[in-house]
Amino acid sequence: MSEGGRKPGEFGVDRSEGFGERLLGLLLDRAHEMPPQLIAPLVAEEVARVGGRDVSILLQDYEQMLLVPLPGRGLMVGDPEPVEGSPAGESFLSRRTVEVPRDGNVRMYLPLLDGSDQVGAMAVTLDSVDDDDRRLLRRLAGLVADMIVTKDAYTDLFFQTRRRAPMSVAAEIQWSLLPPLSMTVPQVEVAGILEPAYTVAGDSFDYALNGDILHVAMIDAMGHGLDAATMATVAIGAYRHTRRAGTGLSQVYAFMDKAINEQFGHDHFVTAQMMCLNVATGRLQWVNAGHPAPLLIRGRAVVDRLESPTTLPVGFGGEEPVVSERMLQPGDRLLCFTDGLIEEHQPGGEQFGEEQLIECTNRAVRDHTAVRPVVRALSHALKQGRGGVTSDDATIFLIEWRGGDADHLATLD
Question: How far apart are CA 196 and CA 244, in angstroms?
Fold first, then answer.
């Protein structure tokens, strides 16, 4: 509708550009052709225009233990900050701005959110802070996160910053295959984590939200090293291919089974679990091809295991699988995991086991609210409980179903 056709009182009549819009617009206008290494100096310049200084951009390391400062002209580069027990980590985990008074100034820590995926945190010092500063810097941090994720496809800069130890070729393949580690929409939230971060090979997960259906897959390819990473790549590729074709879970299993069998032969296999969750109704369907049963968490405690008929791992030519169903209640959480999590032997020879997993899960959901901090805390607690040993890949994927809808997000106030 043309401006002259708008009714009195409708939004958009005042089209003048304010100070904050000019700053964000400048960053956005230049972002399209900006080399990745120039993000830092431009952000530092933008922050200086609102009276800010000592800008740090902190990225999450692959083990999710540290927030590592991004090097760049105009940025303050210090030591990595721990995720646990630091203001930067609090902002990162809570997805909220944290303000720390310091020597008559205010040090602000803002979460870097690409959509709902947590990239890291941005820190800036100001003499004083008002609501206009908070709003502008929050939006600036969101734009910086989007730029980092977009430019990551064109550079190794962000990967090198996040990598805090030598990484195997297999692990690099797996990390390049993964979707964002977390996603949050009003109806559902998901988060996943891989261990050991720098040598993972055969484990992987994937998800997609298509309309009202959340599609999830978790796989564990046999073996270690490049062979396992290659099988995992084929399995995830086959899963995405059939998912995008709109096929049902039985057909997804059959296609993955055929792809692994034809590529690697009868003596190779991949265990898998595929799910479809209707985020509007809570109807869950799943197929289990050799994975441990997911745990159902309700009211901050594990209350059940999603037992179901299992079929052969993909690659073994199993019969058509049984598709299991269950109706979830709002607030229910599903904890999916690979067998490396419970089959690890503790010092002295005893397996870690599912009962200890349940005890650790109950503690994690009591101590943390949001899905991503629960996954992170649980993974690290389990690793510590196993004596810091992870001889096999171990993956956790957590789903929280809330119900409702997201239509209000498409309506302008």
Answer: 30
- What are the Cα distances from residue 276, in Å, to 113, 191, 273, 300, 324? 26, 16, 10, 23, 10
**The dihedral of CA 157, 162, 163, 169: what is its sign?**
negative
**Tens digits of residue pLDDT in 314-350:** 999 989 999 999 999 999 999 999 988 787 666 566 7
Q: Using CB atoms within 10 A of its CB, is residue 168 exposed (0-12), middle (13-18) or buried (19+)?
A: middle
Q: How far apart are CA 18 and CA 23, in angstroms?
A: 9
Assign domain 168-409 to its CATH architecture.
4-Layer Sandwich (3.60)
User: What tokens does 181 get?
Assistant: 């580690």
CA angle (365 as vertex; 364, 367 as ends), nearest 5: 65
For the chain, the domains span: 19-160, 168-409
- The pTM is what? 0.90
Backbone angles phi, psi at 130, to 5 degrees: -120, 180
Q: Which CATH superfamily is domain 19-160 in?
A: GAF domain (3.30.450.40)
What pLDDT, on a 0 to 100 scale, did the predictor assign at position 361?
A: 93
CB burial of residue 381 (10 Å; 0-12, 13-18, 19+): middle
Average pLDDT over residues 266-271: 93
CA distance 59 to 355: 35
Question: Tens of pLDDT along 108-129?
Answer: 999 999 877 889 999 999 999 9
